[in-house]
Amino acid sequence: MNKIASTIIELTVRNHPGAMSHITGLFSRRGFNLEGILCASIGNGENSRMYLLVENNSRLEQIVKQLQKLYDVLKLRIRHDYDHTLFNRLHELIKGEGL
Amino acid sequence: MYYSGAQILIKLLEKFGIRKIPGIPGGANLPIYSALADSSIEHILARHEQGAGFIAQGMARSTGKPAVCFATSGPGATNLLTAIADAKLDSVPIIAITGQVPTTYLGTDAFQEIDTYGLTLPITKHNFLIRSPAELLEVIPEAFRIARDGRPGPVAIDIPKDVQFEKIKVSKWPSPKRTKIKKIDQKTIRKIAQEINKAKKPLLYIGGGIISSGAHLALRKFSGKNSIPVTSTLMGLGAFLPQGSLYLGMLGMHGARYTNLLLKETDLLLAFGVRFDDRATGNIKEFCSQAKIIHIDIDYAEIDKLKKTNISIAGDIKQALEQILPYLRRDARRQWLAHIEKFKKEYPFFMPAKKYFFQPLNFIQAINRHLAPQDIITTDVGQHQMWVAQAYTFSYPRTFLTSGGLGTMGFGFPAAIGAALANPGRRAVCISGDGSFLMNIQELATLADLNLDVAVIIMNNKNLGLVRQQQELFYGKKYIGTFFKSNPDFTKIAESFGIRGYDLGKAKQPAKMLDEALRKKGPCVINAPIHYAENVMPMVAPGAANSEMIGGQEYE
Ligand SMILES: Cc1ncc(C[n+]2csc(CCOP(=O)(O)OP(=O)(O)O)c2C)c(N)n1
Ligand SMILES: [Mg+2]
Predict the structure, then answer these.
(1) Distance of CA B458 from the midpoint of ligand 1 (Å)
(2) Do B391 and B237 meet the contact criterion of CB atoms below 8 Å apart?
(3) Percent of chain B with pLDDT over 70
(4) CA B339, CA B344: separation in Å to the nearest integer?
């Protein structure tokens, strides 16, 4: 995984069944690439934290703006401070599984 | 007191000012209809859910207030989709409320179960699937706020039948919610004024945002003080006064030659309440290539989406205009306006000889003369729509309702019914095509029920004219699927619904018949023969630069 080419977007979202669809739907509908997702509920389960691994290209700004517009997205941060080990291990895990 | 989910819904809709709801009942929304029967809200029985959706749109577009429509689950919901998507692309505040199979059946492929939540997700501003009646107390006020505030848009609410039935105790009813409007940074305001004062050839490019925010009067003052010419998108028509030398009409694919050519001249583009749609900008790379760009729009995701700006504000355009105004210099801009006059003479918009009554532009102007400026015009989609945009003069916002973003045939007629419903005392006229009108013709029954002042004028060219035009110009005149071998007798169709029908083609004096038809109160359908070979000119080929126009050099 190339560090410069990718960025991690951290989202705090309302935790309900539709929130994930809204977020992934945005990526497919607008033709943005989504390279990885991590998601878990936080606090008392009312909200979730999501980490999206996305390509760092000219469309990133538009992705971020569209994500911020989503009703279920409460907070958005770009985590330049994170490296991608998080996702690297995930990718290893997935590779290991085969078909 | 105890209320069922359905009763809570209806009570909240009453509370939020909803007086009329178009829709069609079915198994999954019967409890809602039962509660509706006990309420003061009037139900408008449409004949197709798409009709109901567009009636709601006509109400919302003509007033700016959210309107509600109802449908049952499954096919009722899928029939609504086109109207919801249309509202999304033109930022129209409608709230679509659908019945759903009971919660325990969800996900079992039950009778008339469809994933309405999933289907409406990409075509709404936001959507909800309700899980308990208590949620309605949260969601309904929230739906009104979302639909209306910021950039308006459609909201879909799916309510399972058991939630409609379930009773809960309600001790306190929620009040309407509003979003706080963000303050605009004063430094940016002053910077924009400076740029305008400094510019030699500023140009206002305005759109639907001006109408949404009620900024038309502020715009007129703004443009007048500094003598800034105005060009409008399709969605902005009616925001600026069409008389006067500062008005340049519509830009883009079917704009006048001088308008599109002036875009290359401007040194400062004021893009206010617009989203740089390709029908307006042509090839975006070449759009206003000489100009600095100032963009103001309520939706921050529109800023820098397609065109990099020099200065921008993501905020309310009315506030922005009012705040910039005091810093604007009074300026007559003699040179720039003289240049514009020269362009208007050199590259004019050609009007045909007056003697051809059924020449499309003449015909639109004839309709224009028979109506009052406050009358509401709706159109369908096609050549007739573009002819209206080119030749009708709109002097008030919300008097021109048209499907811009989605370009949906079938929009016009139900939208006219909605406009008439929401504006008692005003006439609504749908200018349609022979193709489009057939797409929601069943609403003639709804119109007959209501006996509203709605006229439909069909510009009948026996073709899907706008597509035929493209086949002629860009596909080597290879015509396929655009000629109608059979068309009904539209006067007889109208009469069979109990509505007056007129055929101007059969009249010795068509102008007189048109006058007679429009003078009488109540609904009517008017058929007008239009020569099939008439084209909308000038035209910018899809993907080409606005300066590369075809036709419209003179009237052939
Ligand atoms: C629902 C829908 N289907 C197809 C189209 C593609 N289309 C755009 S204009 C047009 C022709 C419309 O014909 P008509 O209503 O007769 O208007 P005219 O162009 O002849 O004035 C068509 C088929 C569309 N815009 N909407
Ligand atoms: Mg036609």
Answers:
(1) 13
(2) no
(3) 99
(4) 9
The structural architecture, per CATH, of the domain A6-95 is 2-Layer Sandwich (3.30)
- Which of these, B410, B382, B415, lies nearest to B400 by C-alpha position? B415
For the segment B432-466, what is each residue's pLDDT rounded down to a tens digit? 999 999 999 999 999 999 999 999 999 999 999 99
- For residue B459, give the ligand 1 atom closest to its CA: 21
Residues of B in contact with A21 (CB under 8 A): 117-118, 121
Detail the DSSP E strand segments found in B67-198.
Answer: 67-71, 94-100, 126-129, 155-160, 167-169
Among all residues of chain A, which has the CA nearest to that of B301? A65
Residue with tokens 């989605």: B406
Type of residue numbered B6: A
Residue B28 lies in a domain: yes
- Evaluate whether residue B540 is within a structural domain: no
Rounded average pLDDT over B182-209: 97
Residues B244 and B389 in one domain: no
B161 and B285 fall within a common domain: no
Question: Burial, B472: exposed, middle or buried (Cβ in 10 Å; 0-12, 13-18, 19+)?
Answer: middle
A69 to chain B, any CB pair closer than 8 A? The answer is yes
Query: Do B522 and B405 share a structural domain?
Result: yes
The domain that contains B10 carries what CATH number?
3.40.50.970
* ipTM, two decimals: 0.86
Assigned domain for B322 exists: yes
* Contacting residues of B for A65, CB less than 8 Å apart: 300-301, 303, 305
* Encoded amino acid at B194, one letter: Q
Same domain, B220 and B335: yes
DSSP string, B50-71: HHHHHHHHHHHHHHSS-EEEEE
How many residue pairs bridge chain A and chain B with CB atoms within 8 Å of each other?
Answer: 27
Question: In chain A, which residue's Cα lies nearest the Cα of B120?
Answer: A22
Q: What is the pTM of this model?
A: 0.96
Tokens in use for B328?
A: 């604007």
Same-domain check for residues B276 and B412:
no
Residue appearing with tokens 């100009």: B291
- Look at chain B and report how many structural domains it folds into: 3
Residues B370, B331, single domain; the answer is no
Residue type, B256: A
Distance from CA of A81 to the nearest CA of B (A): 25
**CB B457 near ligand 1, within 6 Å:** no
Q: Does B414 fall in a domain?
A: yes
- What's the CATH number where B332 sits? 3.40.50.1220
How close are the terminal C-alpha atoms of chain A, in Å?
21
Residue type, B384: H
Cα–Cα distance for residue pair B231/B233, rounded to 1 Å = 7
**Alpha carbon distances (Å) from B196 to B204, B249, B311, B402, B414:** 11, 21, 12, 32, 42
State the best of B103, B115, B295, B305 to mutate against chain A, taking most chain A CBs within 10 Å: B305
Range of the domain at B271: 186-346
